[in-house]
Specification:
single chain, Cytochrome-c3 Hydrogenase, chain B, 3-stranded antiparallel sheet, globular
């Protein structure tokens, strides 16, 4: 006789360090139904950003949307405002932005690789991977002054240059990772323990990745050749041969499982090294900021009006920011963020169905979720939770759009 039981994994659970609830229906050890309940944490960053005195204050807030993706979020905000205010960014600054973005990708992917090893109980590999990761963290500190929040990007360019001394450190880092890459690849791709825990586990089919609009390594590991740097290049990316990496480049075929997500991220680390070295070799001379005087810069932004959408290929996938400015109104008039985890969480259902309870941590971690980025809310009134459905949100969106257009 078939007996189904419901279990709750979370909000505090082994796969993630941030709260989210997976409500699972199981038959024995097999997962037969999945419901994801987010919203255990809401920081109100968009609202706070729209109530700062000016866009520069909001820029440093954007850097704190996510501790790992602390370059992609301010970059999106900057690109949106540069489009509205018609700010022309110097070419050298665009190259420095590319380097910063790829350093962040290396850092993020290596951090994820260590976490993935931990989720399957391979802690010696976690410690080794994070030891290797220290090299890029040291370079980030040398170039920016900080290991984490970089405070490097500014409207119209960047705040600090990469001189020859700093470039030498970056090149040395690239050489270090070229030597370490083969060992990392062997440890992650040839070890029998990792293969048994990741091969044919958490499969996301190509069709489901398209249907659910999955982003980043999550969708590319299913064979979808989608990458903002390739499809809608920004910064100096048009000067580089960036292509969406899929598992078949290394393996000759694509499964779309956890193992393929490891393959994609490792290959992207290698691609990032190539982009960084090319950027250093071909970086043009010139200014790094369009307007050095912040007072003049703020006056230009304050005099601008309009709306823009910026897109950025964050380490986890496509990051989108919508911004609206009103002439004479100094703060951000409207600001909306859609981080990649927000869309990738939908992939958890097809990934988990049919698999075992023991597979939950590595499957959940395989999309590299960031719940501080996904930051949404739940409505509770008189002790009862109110479900906010798509129709209700759609009506609210229409009402807000009408208010903004008045």
């Amino acid at each position: 006789m078939k007996h189904d039981y419901e279990i709750a994994v979370g909000p505090i659970h082994p796969a993630l360090k941030e709260p989210i609830l997976l409500r699972l229906t199981i038959d024995g050890e097999e997962i037969v139904d999945v419901d994801v309940i987010a919203s255990q944490n809401h920081r109100g960053i968009e609202w706070i950003g729209m109530n700062r005195n000016n866009p520069i204050q909001s820029l440093y807030l954007a850097e704190r949307v996510c501790g790992i993706c602390n370059f992609c979020h301010p970059s999106n905000l900057v690109m949106a405002i540069e489009e509205i205010a018609d700010i022309e960014v110097p070419e050298r600054a665009q190259y420095i932005r590319v380097i910063q973005g790829e350093l962040e990708r290396i850092h993020s992917h290596l951090l994820w690789a260590g976490v993935a090893a931990h989720e399957i109980g391979f802690d010696s590999l976690l410690h080794y991977t994070w030891m290797v990761r220290e090299k890029v963290m040291d370079v980030l500190e040398a170039v920016n002054g900080n290991r984490v929040t970089k405070a490097i990007i500014m409207y119209g360019g960047v705040r600090r240059d990469i001189d020859e001394e700093k470039a030498k450190l970056v090149r040395k880092m690239c050489s270090y990772y070229r030597e370490a890459f083969n060992k990392l690849a062997k440890l992650f791709l040839e070890d029998d323990t990792i293969k048994k825990r990741t091969r044919e586990i958490g499969i996301l089919k190509y069709e489901d990745a398209l249907k659910l609009a999955a982003a980043g390594p999550t969708t590319r590991a299913s064979g979808v050749k989608k990458d903002v740097r390739q499809d809608f290049p920004y910064f100096a990316y048009p000067d580089f041969d960036v292509h969406a990496i899929t598992p078949d480049e290394l393996l000759g075929y694509t499964v779309g499982d956890v193992y393929d997500r490891i393959v994609v991220r490792l290959l992207e680390v290698k691609q990032s090294l190539e982009i960084i070295e090319e950027a250093l070799n071909n970086m043009p001379s010139g200014d790094i900021i369009a307007e050095k005087k912040l007072v003049k810069l703020m006056a230009k932004i304050k005099a601008s009006e309009g709306e823009a959408v910026a897109r950025y290929e964050a380490p986890r996938g496509e990051d989108i920011h919508y911004v609206m400015l009103k002439q004479g109104y100094e703060p951000l008039y409207s600001w909306k963020i859609r981080a990649p985890t927000y869309i990738n969480i939908l992939s958890w259902r097809p990934m988990l169905l049919g698999y075992q309870i023991a597979d939950i941590p590595i499957i959940a971690a395989s999309i590299d979720p960031c719940l501080s980025c996904t930051n949404r809310f739940a409505v509770v009134k008189d002790g009862e939770e109110k479900i906010i459905n798509a129709d209700y949100f759609h009506r609210l969106s229409i009402e807000k759009t009408r208010r903004l257009k008045k």
